Amino acid sequence: IKEFVVSWMIEAAGNPCPPTTVGVGIGGGSDIAMKLAKRALLRKVGERHENKEIAAMEEELLHAINELGIGAMGLGGKTTILDIHIEVAHRHPASLPVAIAMQCWANRRKTMKIDKEGNIWNID
Known about the structure:
Layout: H1 2-12, E1 20-26, H2 30-40, H3 52-66, E2 81-88, E3 98-103, E4 112-114, E5 120-122
Parallel strand pairs: 1-2
Antiparallel strand pairs: 1-3, 4-5
Helix pairs in contact: 1-3
């Protein structure tokens, strides 16, 4: 899995407009793996998976990808990705679906509450 993710990043190079956030989905079917990859993008930069083995894999991939030297906009440098998050699901032993989703550096987050009357509260 790690080799696949790193080789994919090498092939993508500057096309996804780095520095990016990377989401990786592992397991389920290919449809579920992609959904997991997209969901992984919703985690905050610096947040690690609750499973220590997966968290260690996130850290290892973060360093490996940034050591590629692709850099901002593919022009070279130390920061190719801002973070990488992995989400997993159970899978059949005969298959190993892995999906990768990218989000550009301008990944924006906002949390709000909307009640049934249409009132809106900003939470963060």
